[in-house]
Design a protein that fits this description.
Elements (H helix, E strand, L loop, with lengths): L1 E6 L23 E4 L6 H13 L3 E3 L8 E4 L4 H9 L4 E11 H10 L42 H16 L3 H15 L19 H13 L3 H8 L1 H10 L6 H9 L5 H6 L6 H8 L1 H4 L3 E2 H18 L4 E4 L1 H4 L4 E2 L2 E6 L9 H11 L3 E7 L21 E10 L22 E10 L5 H9 L2 H15 L1 E3 L4 E3 L4 E3 L4 H7 L13
Length: 500
C-alpha cells in the first residue's frame, strides 16, 4: 500500500463512474481504476468491460474511493506522477499501485488474487538520463531481425502508416515508415522513453511523433483515426481483389465504389485476373498456413519432376523466413544443368491444368538480357524471370486429394472441399539461382536495403539476376547467398533474420 493524495474525481475522459454497466458487483470492497496511459483507450475499454462481467467494480473515473490502480508498461513513479498531476488534491488516501498482470490473473481466477511482490509497481524514478541509448547500423541489411520484436505496438503502427502511404501511391513516405519500423524491430529491448532513440538512423520527424504518442498514450491517435477512415477501409477492400492495384482502386473510389458488393453491381468490365479475384475474394484474403504451403509444394514438385526429372524446387518468400502464414506461396524452380530449365514453365502449367489444379494463371517469358556494360536499367525488385502468377485449387485438410474424408451428409451445408490459394512459380537458370533465391526470400525492405548498400557503399548493381561491379565493369558470380554477402562485404544473415 502506498499513500496517495486525496482528490476530487478525475479521469482520462468524462463518463459514468461505473461505465454504464449493470453487471452485479461481487467484490464491493475492491474498487479498480485502469490507467489509460500507455494502455490505450480501446484496450482500457475492453479490459474494463471484461472486469465488470467478472463481477469486479471497475471505475471509469479515478476517485478517492479507488483501492487498486492498474497500469500497463508504467513504473510506480510514472503512475504516481500522473496521479499527482491531477488538480485540487484533498488530503491522503491509500491505494495499491499494481501491474496489469494482477488484473489478468484475477480475471482468470474469477476473484481478486493475493497481491504478490511481483504485482507491485516499482517505485524508483525512471530517469531518462539513465535509460539505455540504443545503437543500430544504418542499413537494414546489416541488422539481424527475427519475426519477434520488443516493440510490436510501435512497429505495427508504423507499418500501418507505411501501408496507407503505399495504397495512396506515396511510395517515398511508405519506404520512410518501413525503414523506421525496421529500426524499432532491431532493438534489443522495449523503448521506454524518447531519449533512447537519439542518434538512431531512419527515424524522421513524423515517425518520432507517432512513437512519442504511443509511449505517452498507448496508441497513436493518427493511426487509430486512419484505421477508421472510409478511404483506408475502401482501399483495403478493393486492393484485396487479386489483380487490382492502388491506382485502379483509387479510380473506383472516386467513382463511389467502396465495397465488393458495389464493385459487383457497378457493371465495370474486369480483366481475367480481377474476375478471378472477385470470385475467390474470401479465400484469397484468408492467410495461407505453413501446412497449406507444404501441400501446394507437393503438387508443384510432382508437376515439375514429371516433366523435368532432376529439377529443384525451393519454397521462398515469408515462409522461408520462418513466417507461420502468408498471403501467397512462392516457389523458385531450377535445374543443375544450365539451359535444361528452358521451356519448363509451359509444361508445368499444362500438367497442372490437366490435373484440375489451376483456377487462374498468367505466364510471362524470361526477358533478361545480360549486357557486357552492366544492367540496362537500375536494379529493382522486379525481375524478368519466366514466371507464372496463378490461383491454385487446393483441397482442404479434411478432404484429401481424390479421396473424401466422409459421406456428404456429414459435411455442413454449402461445404466446399477446396480453397483458392495464390501461387507464384518462378524459373531461374542455375547460374542465376543464388541471386534469385536471395531476391525472392525477402523481406521487401531487406532486399531494397541490400540494393541500396550495393550501390551506395560498394558501387555495385544488385538484382535477382546478377551482381555487377561498376568499377571493374564485370559481373561477380555466386553459387550461394553466402558468396553474394561476401561480395558485398556484409556478414551473412540467414533467412530467419531478414524480417526487416
Amino acid at each position: 500500500m502506498v499513500p496517495l493524495k486525496r482528490r476530487k474525481v478525475v479521469g482520462n475522459y468524462t463518463g459514468a463512474g461505473h461505465g454504464g454497466d449493470n453487471s452485479p458487483t461481487k467484490f464491493p470492497d475492491v474498487l479498480l481504476f485502469l490507467l489509460e496511459r500507455k494502455m490505450g483507450a480501446s484496450r482500457r475499454a475492453f479490459l474494463s468491460q471484461l472486469g465488470r462481467k467478472k463481477g469486479f467494480h471497475v471505475e471509469e473515473l479515478f476517485s478517492e474511493s479507488v483501492t487498486h490502480v492498474i497500469s500497463e508498461n508504467n513504473s510506480g513513479y510514472e503512475v504516481r506522477t500522473w496521479l499527482d498531476s491531477q488538480r485540487r488534491a484533498q488530503g491522503q488516501m491509500m491505494a495499491h499501485l499494481l501491474d496489469i498482470s494482477w488484473y489478468t490473473e484475477s480475471m482468470r481466477a474469477g476473484h481478486p488474487v493475493p497481491i504478490l511482490e511481483r504485482h507491485k509497481l516499482q517505485e524508483q524514478h525512471n530517469d531518462e538520463g539513465e535509460a539505455v541509448v540504443f545503437s543500430v547500423p544504418s542499413f537494414a541489411c546489416q541488422r539481424r531481425i527475427t519475426l519477434d520484436n520488443h516493440n510490436t505496438i510501435i512497429t505495427g503502427a508504423l507499418s500501418l502508416l507505411a501501408e496507407n502511404a503505399e495504397l495512396s501511391e506515396e511510395d517515398g513516405r511508405g519506404v520512410a515508415f518501413r525503414r523506421a519500423a525496421a529500426v524499432l524491430k532491431a532493438l534489443p529491448e522495449p523503448v521506454t522513453c524518447m531519449t533512447q532513440l537519439r542518434g538512431l538512423p531512419c527515424l524522421g520527424e513524423h515517425s518520432l511523433r507517432v512513437i512519442k504518442d504511443i509511449l505517452e498514450n498507448g496508441e497513436s491517435n493518427e493511426v487509430e483515426s486512419m484505421k477508421q477512415s472510409e478511404r483506408y477501409k475502401a482501399l483495403k477492400v478493393l486492393t484485396g481483389v487479386f489483380g487490382v492495384g492502388a491506382k485502379t482502386a483509387d479510380r473506383w473510389i472516386r467513382e463511389g465504389i467502396h465495397t465488393l458488393h458495389q464493385l459487383r453491381d457497378s457493371g465495370h468490365a474486369l480483366n481475367r485476373a480481377q474476375q478471378a479475384g472477385v470470385e475467390h475474394y474470401d479465400d484469397l484474403n484468408q492467410p495461407v498456413s505453413m501446412a497449406e504451403a507444404d501441400a501446394v509444394g507437393e503438387i508443384v514438385e510432382k508437376a515439375v519432376v514429371s516433366v523435368l526429372p532432376g529439377a529443384q524446387i525451393t519454397l521462398t518468400g515469408g515462409f522461408r523466413r520462418g513466417k507461420p502464414s502468408g498471403h501467397d506461396v512462392d516457389f523458385l524452380i531450377t535445374h543443375p544443368e544450365e539451359g535444361r530449365e528452358e521451356g519448363l514453365m509451359s509444361k508445368v502449367v499444362s500438367w497442372l491444368e490437366s490435373q484440375g489444379f489451376l483456377l487462374y494463371h498468367k505466364t510471362s517469358r524470361n526477358s533478361y538480357l545480360e549486357s557486357a556494360n552492366g544492367p540496362a536499367r537500375p536494379a529493382s525488385n522486379m525481375d524478368r524471370f519466366e514466371r507464372c502468377f496463378s490461383i491454385f485449387k487446393l483441397a482442404k485438410k479434411y478432404h484429401e486429394l481424390g479421396k473424401d474424408a466422409g459421406p456428404e451428409e456429414t459435411k455442413p451445408a454449402g461445404h466446399k472441399p477446396w480453397r483458392a490459394v495464390r501461387v507464384d512459380l518462378v524459373v531461374s537458370p542455375i547460374s542465376q539461382f543464388a541471386f534469385a533465391l536471395l531476391g525472392w526470400t525477402g523481406s521487401k525492405l531487406f532486399e531494397r536495403e541490400l540494393r541500396r548498400w550495393a550501390g551506395q557503399e560498394k558501387a555495385m548493381s544488385l538484382s535477382s539476376h546478377a551482381l555487377f561491379d561498376n568499377k571493374q565493369k564485370r559481373y561477380l558470380t555466386a553459387t550461394s547467398e553466402e558468396e553474394i554477402f561476401g561480395h558485398l562485404g556484409l556478414e551473412f544473415i540467414p533467412p530467419s533474420e531478414r524480417n526487416a
